Amino acid sequence: GGLQEGIWLGEGGAAHTPSPPPAPFELALRGVVGALGLGVGWRRWSRDSRRLLLWLIAHLGLLFVGWMQWSLTVLGTGQGRLIFPALPALAVLMAAGWRALWPSRRAAMGMLLGFALFSALVLAAVVGPLYRGRPALAAPVAAVDASWQFGDGLTLLRYEFTRNEETVAGGTPGELYVEWLATQPLPDLRMRLHLVDETGAVVWQKEGTPSAGWDTTDVWPVGEPIAAWHRVVIPVESAAGWHRLLLSVVARDGDPLPIRGPDGTPYGDQVAVGGLWVE
Question: The pTM is what?
Answer without folding.
Answer: 0.59
